[in-house]
Amino acid sequence: MKVLILAAGYGTRLYPLVKNRPKPLLMVADRPLINHIVDKLVGLPGLEELLVVSNQKFYNHFLQWAQELRATFSVPIRIINDKTTTPENRLGSVGDIHFTIKTAGIANDLFVIGGDNLFDYQLNDFVAFAQKKPTAVSIGLYDIHNLKDATMYGVVALGAEGKVVSFEEKPAQPKSTLISMCCYYIPKAALADLEQYIQVSKKMDKAGEFIQWLCKEKEVYGFKFSGKWYDIGSIESYQEAQQKFR
Question: Rounded to two decimals, what is the model's pTM?
Fold first, then answer.
């Protein structure tokens, strides 16, 4: 299994905080945001490599970060440069996943995590859950407890054994507050599904739209996390995380 952290966005809603620093390297509780993610990767069974996909603008920032992390993180780290330079020519989350798969020659299971996710729960149970379904994509879910906030995410309904029976991307009237985070386990048998989605839809931007399409074509499973979770997408959410996350 390889882990990919998506860190190639430009975080325009967080300007000017991210004008000269990538969002995953913003400080939370005296440490870079991305380090809190890496903490949860330590000890994951079968982890072979950590990949971080960045853009050209912040590529050197992540090279320096990785050099420092290697002193304490035993798993090999590779920084992928998607070569984009502005929000206008960014690849999007699907595009960056696809670019990394091709560039790094990934042919085994891939665990994808958004670099702006901040959480305090462990990932072991999710990985174990996903690996029991070797042909299906599994996604991380969280109950946000607010219907208005749910409109900004993919809203999910689960059936037996955690099978996703409904997925609506950013619905105006969500049926529940159970949302999909940027947390996807793509087994090697399902890597071709991403390729098929791109060919059919011609879309590279939003991973949630890929999952919505996939739910109609194949089986997708969801795993509910509990604990603290923040999506660092705005100055307000970043300030809230700064105050509440320890």
Answer: 0.96
